[in-house]
Amino acid sequence: MSRELLEREPELEELRAAARQASAGHGRVVLLHGEAGIGKTSLASALQSEPPDGTRVLIGSCDAMSTPRTLGPLRDLAPSFGPRLGEALRAGDREEVFDALREELAASVTVLIVEDVHWADEATLDVLRFLARRIVDLPAVLVLTYRDELDRDHPLGRLLGDLGHGDHVDRIALRLLSADAVGALTAGSGLDTDRVYAMTAGNPYFVNELVASADEVHVPPTVVDAVTGRLRRLDAATQDHIEQLAVVPSAVDRDLLARLVPGSEGALRPAEESGLLAVSPEGVRFRHELTRRAVVDALPASRRIQLERRVLAELLATGVADPARLVHHAIAAGDADAVVEWAPRAARDAAASGAHRQAAAHFRVARKHTGRYEPAERADLLEESAIESHTIGAADDAVAAQSESIVLRRQLGDPLRLGASLRWLSRFQWFDGRRADAEAAAHEASAVLAEAGDRGLHAMALSNEAQLALLAHDTERAIELAGRAIALARETGDRECSRTR
């Protein structure tokens, strides 16, 4: 089994077993089905490359054309058969085609694979129905591959219904790859296996395209083209619905779905039958995250902005209390007012939950619009951003944000807030390798807070100075500053500060 054809041993053995039965005079029909990209063609090719002894494997394909070729698979196969079939096809003699094909399959053990039968023309379906009814008396296996995504009125559905009653019919449903198989396919690629598995859900085509691109962040153009091709075969209204849902990077719950797609239960049926969406009583989601992202990547910028604005408006209308979701759509929609309102809330929610990287990211978004905040609010936001950046080790960003905050604190004339902010700045500067600046800020913090008369904050500033002196190996000064800090802390009952050494 090749590296590209993992977890398909049982299915390949089923096909071989059917061929062995055919060689014994017991023909069979095999229905090989699964979603797009699941590996039907790869399995058929594997059988053809290593056919069972004494068996020929022939493959014909149906094409995704606006008007399918009449008997297209047979025209492809004609060179592999005797002259009678070719002559019958050229003459357009239906009965002669039937007889020539049956005669050809009776001559030697054959596995005849017709791929993508969901795109077959009516004449091809009639030929397949003719063969399926007679296959049991032929030394042949008729393998039909097709996608599961068939709408209720699809012509292939009637053929499958007819075949379902036969005891000479086998069904092989190809499943998605396991996480282990995805790990094997991504080995040595440098990609994050868990991320690839989450994006593809184990669809072999998607996995292989990501591995080929060596990039699990961006959707490969081949995937975008493949998804876009499937999308464009749907009616215009369904395309609009899919594009609208695609800009929501999560499952869409029932309330939001009802607002975005009125009459969604019926309106989304074509999208579900096409295999793009999975619909449940709780809402709707894309079958594959990579599919959703491919749809988004194919959108013109103006169209995406329009769709994002609608999602944002509907989320606000429903009273959604998740600031992070609102910020995501506000950024994509270019709605600065919403970003200004919700980014700080999202940051504070993340910080309170211990998600400091997310908090820092949300604060950075808010800082792009600092001119929209009042000076005091802006100073607080910058300081909170600096603290989160410091927490995740982004020392440069912490110093930059805190320095901006202190400029505002000086203008606002609040010595308590200025002193506390200077103490923070000194710590950030120390961790950024700026010892002289850190000591200067620490000294100013102590002086400002001593003047302001807040003994608790003054004790904290002295404690900070003591720590910096100790780190600079100035033990005598560290002891003197620590003693002063402890004395003030004991006066105020601040146990944390009184633990200073």
Quote the beta fraction: 5-15%
Low-confidence stretches: none
Helix content: 55-70%
Structural class: alpha/beta
Q: Can you identify the CATH superfamily of the largest domain?
A: P-loop containing nucleotide triphosphate hydrolases
Stated plainly, the CATH topology of the largest domain is called: Rossmann fold
H/I helix tally: 27
The tally of strands reads 8
General form? elongated
Counted up, domains total 4
CATH architecture of the largest domain: 3-Layer(aba) Sandwich
**End-to-end distance:** 67 Å
| Average pLDDT number | 89
Across the major sheet, the strand order is 2-3-4-1-5
Structural overview:
With 501 residues, this protein is an alpha/beta fold. It folds into 4 domains: 9-173, 3-Layer(aba) Sandwich (Rossmann fold); 219-300, Arc Repressor Mutant, subunit A (Orthogonal Bundle), CATH 1.10.10; 321-408, Serine Threonine Protein Phosphatase 5, Tetratricopeptide repeat (Alpha Horseshoe), CATH 1.25.40; 414-501, Serine Threonine Protein Phosphatase 5, Tetratricopeptide repeat (Alpha Horseshoe), CATH 1.25.40.10. It has 27 helices and 8 strands. It has helices at 9-23, 40-49, 72-77, 83-91, 94-107, 122-134, 155-163, 179-186, 193-200, 204-213, 221-231, 236-246, 254-260, 264-267, 269-273, 289-297, 301-317, 323-333, 336-352, 356-367, 375-391, 395-412, 415-431, 435-452, 455-471, 475-492, 495-498, and strands at 28-34, 56-61, 110-115, 140-147, 169-173, 252-253, 277-280, 283-286. The strands form 2 sheets. The protein has a 5-stranded parallel β-sheet with strand order 2-3-4-1-5, with helices on both faces. It has a 3-stranded antiparallel β-sheet with strand order 6-8-7. Strand 7 (277-280) and strand 8 (283-286) form a beta hairpin. The radius of gyration is 34 Å and the shape is elongated. 44% of the residues are buried. The model has no long low-confidence stretch (mean pLDDT 89).
